[in-house]
Amino acid sequence: xxxxxxxLFVPHHGNNHKAKILHHDSLSKxxxxxxxxxxxxxxxxxxxxxxxxxxxNISVDQILNLTNANRQSDGLSTLSFNPTLAQSAKExxxxxxxxxxxxxxxxxxxxPWYFFKNVGYNYLYAGENLARDFGDSDSVVKAxxxxxxxxxxxxxxxxxxxGIAVVNGILNGQETTLVVQHFGKPSVVAATIPAQxxxxxxxxxxxxxxxxxxxxxxxxxxxxxxxxxxxxASLNNNKLNYTLVQESQSLxxxxxxxxxxxxxxxxxxxxxxxxxxxxLDGWLIYSRKTVRRSGKNFIHLSLFALxxxxxxxxxxxxxx
Amino acid sequence: MFFNHKKTTKTKIDYLFLAVGFLATxxxxxxxxxxxxxxxxxxxxxxxxxTLWGSLHHQREGDFHPKIAMEYFLMASLAVVLLLSIIFxx
Lengths: 320, 90
What we know:
The complex is a heterodimer. Helix content of chain A is about 50%, strand content about 20%. Chain A is an alpha+beta fold. Chain A is elongated, with a radius of gyration of 26 Å. Chain B has one domain. Chain B has three helices and no strands. The interface of A and B includes residues 35 and 310 of A.
């Protein structure tokens, strides 16, 4: 055992004066081992849905307030919360869980605009922003604001109303929190001013924005914040594969293991191992004044230092 | 003496080029935060750059061997797999 470890970590004549871990075959095995871990995590996610997922604490109120705060800072009017738009946002999120997809358009071709029409919201302009797996409301809005197309939706003067849905469920075997923002401007104006409707026809979705007719809706009163705690156990007991969060509720999801954190830990451990071996190997070769034809350890070290920095700085959350 | 100075300058230029490559990878990776395909593309390009840089650097130093190129390729592959597995877990 000791001899084996010595061979793996210490350069000597028996391993051609290079730590065995740094040999080509060992590096190839490390790559395969990493791929195996990823397959294993994916299999666990499929076999035991809800065990893996992302912890989050997101509220509709906060998303709404942060969205409007950004608009106000740019001198724009605030968006009114519209329960019909919130319903279409919820239906969109439910559809993503039901059909197991993460996109603006469903695999069966259903567009975001279908959900607007389905709840009876006829619009002059409409838009959609999507986010998933963020830890808190602030991070969601921040990510949208950093993306030009999503920012355009949030900061657009064309919209007057907004509906937001925060929905927790299982997507691709992982507990996932979806945040859907539906923006709209009811097309009452379009019915009376045809010229404006014609202009709006040129506005095709970016990540959002189309055109078509009708209805202005009453503005809802936001209720007090209610916390909904969702755990893998409660998810498993629930026959539905998603949990809706009402207008002003906050969602706290606490899955057992975050797949990102698990992967980060494994990858940092793997990078750390390679870094230790490179330092030890390089130091011994230098101190023994061994001459060998090989790549430069300190260059490889700088590569893995970069890898570790990127892994550490990477945070969860996706937007489209 | 003159020869050594020339070699040192050449090596410094190589290292500077590598540092710029690493810095660009870092910056572009985080500029495209949340866009998996772009990030994956950036990481794969960085891996190819590292392999190419290693081969050219050793060629310029006069100690190139195909096994060295393979070493840089495998190190780059390991780094790429480490980062791709993170990108597709976000």
